[in-house]
Amino acid sequence: MKKKVAFTINDEHMELEIESHKTLLEVLREDLALTGTKEGCGLGACGACTVLIEDSPALSCLTLALEVKNKHISTIEGLMIGDELDPIQLSFVEHGAIQCGFCTPGMIMSAKALLGQNPRPARKEIKYAISGNLCRCTGYKKIIDAVESISNG
Ligand code: FES
Ligand code: FES
């Protein structure tokens, strides 16, 4: 059964008819072609599908699309400012914190939420904030360095 849902994605207001069983991840990727948000495990274990709901990180694979009614969702596609990368994206590039890139959108969204709440996190706070985001390539050090360098200005 479909239901009408209104929400905002990356500052764009929209109303969609959505099958009630669909996850936010499915709606983003399949209905809105916002494929920057990745599906890893689909079970809440890898963090690849992390988006922000009202500026807090959330696993879109575990979130029903109907749950985000009237909420604001941010995805990796919304981070660029015009043609400019967000400072977090730039820092990931500069620190070599991206290898295959599959974890990167979710990792960056978790970092974005952290820096939004705490602009100067300690290294252990960065580790904690990304602890739900798995990366099988980088060994995490360069990712933590990338986030830390932003917090150090
Ligand atoms: S795809 Fe959502 S946590 Fe892995
Ligand atoms: S860069 Fe490959 S999983 Fe993180």
Shape: globular
Judging by the overall fold, what is the CATH architecture of the largest domain?
Roll
Contiguous runs where pLDDT drops below 50 for at least 5 residues: none
User: What is the end-to-end distance?
Assistant: 49 Å
**How much β-strand is present in the residues?**
15-25%
* CATH topology name of the largest domain: Ubiquitin-like (UB roll)
* Average pLDDT number: 96
Number of strands: 5
Structural class: alpha+beta
Bound ions, cofactors and other small molecules, one mention each? FE2/S2 (inorganic) cluster
> What's the gyration radius in Å?
15 Å
Number of contiguous helices: 5
Number of domains: 2
The run of helices and strands is EEHEEEHHHH
CATH superfamily label of the largest domain: Beta-grasp domain
CATH class of the largest domain: Alpha Beta
> How do the strands of the widest beta sheet line up side by side?
2-1-5-3-4
Helix content: 25-40%
- How would you characterize the largest beta sheet? 5 strands, mixed
Structural commentary:
- This protein has 153 residues and is an alpha+beta fold.
- It folds into two domains: 2-78, Beta-grasp domain (Ubiquitin-like (UB roll)), CATH 3.10.20.30; 87-151, DNA polymerase, domain 1 (Orthogonal Bundle), CATH 1.10.150.120.
- The chain has helices at 24-31, 87-94, 104-117, 123-129, 141-151; strands spanning 2-9, 12-19, 50-53, 56-59, 72-74.
- The protein has a five-stranded mixed β-sheet with strand order 2-1-5-3-4, covered by helices on one side.
- Helix 2 (87-94) packs across helix 5.
- The radius of gyration is 15 Å and the shape is globular.
- Bound molecules: FE2/S2 (inorganic) cluster (FES) (2 copies).
- One FE2/S2 (inorganic) cluster is lined by residues 39-42, 44-49, 59, 61.
